[in-house]
C-alpha cells in the first residue's frame, strides 16, 4: 500500500500541477497512519467530529 500511495503522489504532482495532497484516515487505523507518514504526509490536525 505504501508504494501505491508513493506512486499516486508522484503522478499527481507531475501531471496535475497540484501543490498539496491531503488524506483522511480512520483514527484507530494505525497502519494507514504509518503509510501516510512513511510517504512524508504530516499531521496538521485532528477532526473531532464528522457529520
UniProtKB/TrEMBL annotation:
Cited SUPFAM superfamilies: Acyl-CoA N-acyltransferases (Nat)
Entries under InterPro entries matching the protein: Acyl_CoA_acyltransferase
Name under which the protein is recorded: GNAT family N-acetyltransferase
Organism: Massilicoli timonensis
